Amino acid sequence: MLILAIGDFHIPERAVDLPAKFKKLLSPTGKIQQVLCLGNVSQSYSTLEFLRSISSDLQIVKGEFDHDLSLPLSATFTYDKLKVGIVNGFSIIPHGDPLSLLTQARLMDADILISGGTHRVEAYTLDGKFFINPGSATGAFSTSPPDNEELEAIASILAEAKAAITEPKDEKPKTENTKPDDEGPKENADVKEESKEPESEEPTPVNEQPPLPEPTIDGEKEEGEKPLSTADIEDYLDQIPSFCLLDIQGSVCTLYLYTYIDGDVKVDKVTYRKEEY
């Protein structure tokens, strides 16, 4: 059975439409038998109609920005030997936390849990269960603050960029205090040089400017330093449009992750097999 997992459209508030290449890939062919939508779609009637055109079996759970109160917060479906649960993810605290998602999967007795909310495409196994996040279909920005891992990565990138800009050119340090020939006889300079004690020589520093401090995170800073600001991090948190296709056969789920990067659609494949005792 071929299933489409997609969500977090946020049309028209944060995005105009799906990428054109996504719409072409998902044009109705009859091959996709069910659409599982992770919510944040009810504000766009045209998007709902497009999803219904892909498959008449459209299942939607409520996102935090869906105004349709009749939508369920979660749902479960059984395909062959696998039970799949879907939630938007806004009710998972902390958002996207693997242990919290594991608890949710156990409560739903699901082998596979599909969740959204974070706008980051993910697929991993934990404690024998398979966790999927199809990300945002439109690449809509997320209002959730970046986690510590993201902040550390951004701080490292910014520190390397600043170091490359401010790195001094290679110069040979001056170790002698010489004068032009016309300012005194060469013999006097030689005598002075011989009379110097080796341990008293101090080379003139090439660059007396102290190294730039690395960007800090979580508001921690030393005197003269500033924590990462929104302007610092916004260019590194661009969301990537994405969705997933699940091909379920028996106790095996083959997952295809579609991402839209630099104008091209990229596909990654992950296989999950339920452990049977």
TrEMBL record:
<protein>
    <recommendedName>
        <fullName>Vacuolar protein sorting-associated protein 29</fullName>
    </recommendedName>
</protein>
<dbReference type="GO" id="GO:0140312">
    <property type="term" value="F:cargo adaptor activity"/>
</dbReference>
<dbReference type="InterPro" id="IPR028661">
    <property type="entry name" value="Vps29"/>
</dbReference>
<dbReference type="GO" id="GO:0005829">
    <property type="term" value="C:cytosol"/>
</dbReference>
<comment type="similarity">
    <text>Belongs to the VPS29 family.</text>
</comment>
<dbReference type="Pfam" id="PF12850">
    <property type="entry name" value="Metallophos_2"/>
</dbReference>
<dbReference type="InterPro" id="IPR024654">
    <property type="entry name" value="Calcineurin-like_PHP_lpxH"/>
</dbReference>
<dbReference type="GO" id="GO:0042147">
    <property type="term" value="P:retrograde transport, endosome to Golgi"/>
</dbReference>
<keyword id="KW-0653">Protein transport</keyword>
<dbReference type="GO" id="GO:0005768">
    <property type="term" value="C:endosome"/>
</dbReference>
<dbReference type="GO" id="GO:0170071">
    <property type="term" value="C:CROP complex"/>
</dbReference>
<feature type="domain" description="Calcineurin-like phosphoesterase">
    <location>
        <begin position="1"/>
        <end position="144"/>
    </location>
</feature>
<dbReference type="GO" id="GO:0030906">
    <property type="term" value="C:retromer, cargo-selective complex"/>
</dbReference>
<dbReference type="InterPro" id="IPR029052">
    <property type="entry name" value="Metallo-depent_PP-like"/>
</dbReference>
<dbReference type="GO" id="GO:0015031">
    <property type="term" value="P:protein transport"/>
</dbReference>
<keyword id="KW-0813">Transport</keyword>
<dbReference type="InterPro" id="IPR000979">
    <property type="entry name" value="Phosphodiesterase_MJ0936/Vps29"/>
</dbReference>
<feature type="compositionally biased region" description="Basic and acidic residues">
    <location>
        <begin position="167"/>
        <end position="198"/>
    </location>
</feature>
<feature type="region of interest" description="Disordered">
    <location>
        <begin position="164"/>
        <end position="227"/>
    </location>
</feature>
